[in-house]
Structures are given as C-alpha cells and as structure tokens.
Design goal:
mainly alpha, Tetracycline Repressor, domain 2, 11 helices, Tet_transcr_reg_TetR-rel_C_sf, transcription, transcription regulation
Amino acid sequence: MNVDVVRQRPRVEGGREDEILDATVAVVAELGYDRLTMDAVATAAKASKATLYRRWSTKADLVVDAISRAKGCPMPEDLDTGSLRGDLISMSCGDGGFTDELPMSVIAGLLTALHRDADLQKAFRERFLGPRIAVTNKVYERAVERGEIAPDVDVALLSVTLPAVIVHHAYILGVEPTDELILRVIDNVILPAARGAQVS
C-alpha cells in the first residue's frame, strides 16, 4: 500500500527532478547518509524543501530514488556476451561497475546506515539491489545452461562472491577496485569455482 502511495506522488516538473537527484547523489557521496539532510539537498539543488517533500516523503525515499537513477549508477542491462567471463567483465568494469568512482563512493556513504535504518535497508534492497541481482542471476543461469558451471556448484553462493570480494577490498582493506583486481577474482576464484570439484 505504501508503494502505491509513493508511486502516486507528483513528479517534479521538467528537468528539475534529475537535477535534484544528481544533487542528492553528490551530497551522499560527500557527507554520507547519516549527515545528509533535506536542507542540504535543497541547498545543493537550489530547490525548496517543500519541493522535495512533495515528491519524496522521507530521506530514504529520496536517496534510494537518486542512487537508483543516477548517471554514475546506471541500471544494468541484461547482457549475453556468450561466456560467463565476458558477462562478468562487462557488468563489473566501466560505467556503473566496481571501478566507477561514483557508485563506490555512494555505497560508502550508505554503509554505516544500512544495517540500522530499516526504511533505508528495505528501499535499498528492493529498488537498488533487486534489479541488479536479477541481472546477475540471469548471467549465472545462462552460464549453467551453457554448461560453464558444474552441477555440484552452489550457484547462489558463487553469484555473490565477486561483489563480496570487491567490497571487502574496497571498504575493509582500503584497496581501490581496479580492472586488474576484478580480472584476478574472475580468473582465479569465480571460474575455477564454477568448474566444481575435480575428480582425479
């Protein structure tokens, strides 16, 4: 029911909505979610708080809407390069991937709040992570159909391994994600694991 209410909220006219969302992403990247306020976004976007609240009833709604539609965090497209390796490289490198500075800086700004803000966590999982997980699942499903993944492999676990390793490097070890790191994980972890247990 709440989803229907959000969907019925009036859109901001013209290109102002995009400007507000871009400003929101910039504020999240700079201040983090906890320190972000509607005032800060309104100032950055040169808009009134009333304009923001007419469209987004909560800070969580605004932030998740912003990062879901941000230019630096494009919605991943369903892709099929013909191989699991090719698909993972296409998804993970470049615009919207792990090496894109904006998405990683934005996620860093949200991490401290995600585990304790139920509204943010729910919106983030449903509207940001959900579509991306769906694309990833299709990539692995096709890899199974092509015979690239052995029958004994835990595909659900395998599908989250690459992002888990990259996030660990970025936010725990402080190692900036690079194409080289992504390729190392794909070639030394994902693909060998996809082949399953080797029977000698």
